[in-house]
Write a structure and sequence with these properties.
CATH architecture of the largest domain: 3-Layer(aba) Sandwich
Shape: globular
Structural class: alpha/beta
CATH topology of the largest domain: Rossmann fold
Largest sheet: 6 strands, parallel
Strand order of the largest sheet: 2-1-3-4-5-6
CATH class of the largest domain: Alpha Beta
Radius of gyration: 21 Å
Amino acid sequence: MKIAFYAPLKSPDHPVPSGDRLMARQFVRILREAGHSLEIASRLRSFHATPDTVLPDLEGAANAEIDRLTRAWEADGPPDLWFCYHPYYKAPDLIGPVIARRFSLPYVTAEASYSARRNIGFWAGHQEALKSLVERAALNICLTARDEAGLTAAAPEARLARIAPFIDAEPFANIKTAPEAGRLVTVAMMRAGDKMQSYAALAEALRRVRSDAWRLAVIGDGPERDKVRQLFALLPQERIEWIGELPREGVTEQLARASVFVWPGYGEAYGLAYLEAQAAGLPVIAHETAGVPEVVVDGRTGILTPAGDADALAGAIDRLLQDFDLRRSLGQRARNFVLTERSQPVIAAQIAPLLLAALEYPL
C-alpha cells in the first residue's frame, strides 16, 4: 500500500540523533522492506517542551502543510493510509487528523502516549484531542505495557495492538566481538532530567563497586557534558574513557570491545541502546524502572536491580565482573533474544496483517 508517514516529535531525517529519531527511522525501514510505498508526508515539528516554547504560528504552519498535501494528493492521488509515529501531548499531530478525514484515509498511530496526570492547564486541550484521535484511529500500535494501559484507560473502545520494541539487528548479525575483561560501557546523551539522574546513579554505584578491575567507556555527549563529568570526579579518572558522540558504526565497535553494558535507565520509555548492546552479545545491568523491563529480561539477558538502590547496582556490577560463566551465558542469551524476537523482520511480519485490517476503518 501507499503510506503517508509523519513523526510530529522528530522527523526520521532530523539532523539531531535521538532514540525517537531512530525508532521513527526503523518504522520507515520495516514498512518499506515489507513492500509498501512510503513518503514522509511532512517534516513539521510540533514538539514544544513547555507552553512557552510553542513555535510561532504553529497552527498556521500546520494548515499550510494540509493545503500543500491536499493539492498534491488531488493531482496525484491520495495514499492508502496515514501512519503517525509517537503523537503525545507535547508533540500533537496537527496535520493527519484533518487530511485523513478529508480523504477518508485510515489513521494509524504507533507509540501514542496518554497520561491522565497531564490533563491540566495548557496541555488539557492537546490531551483531549489525542484521546479523541486514539478513539477514532483505525489502529493504535503500543510498544509498552505502560502505553497500552494508558490508552486503554483513556479510550476503552480504541483499537489497540501490541508489538515489542525492536531494532535493526543486521549490523550485529555477524559482529566479531572481542570483549575486554572488566570493560563496562554505557551509551546515553548528556542532558538534564532523567539522563542526568541515571548518570548520577551510575557514578554512585561505581563508588561502591568492590572490584578494582573495572573500566568504563562513556559514549555520548550533550549540553550537560561538564556536569556529567563532575559526577564522576571522585572516581579514578584513569578508569573512565570519555569517548563522546559516535556514529552507529562507532558505537557498534565499542560494544564489541566491552564485557558488560550498564545504564540505570531512569525515565526510559524502553531504551533502544539496551537492545543494541544485547544484539552485540552484552549482558545488561540496569534498574528495574520505567520501560527497561520491556527490553531487558531479568535473569535471562541481564540483571535488573531496584530503582534507587546504589548498593544493588554495584553488587550486580561486581557479580558480572567476577563471574565469567554467568556473564557469557547472559550475553549469549541476550544476543539470541534480540536476533530472534526483537529484530525488524520479526516485527514487520507482525505489523503486516495489522495494517491490512486497518484499511477497513477510515477516519
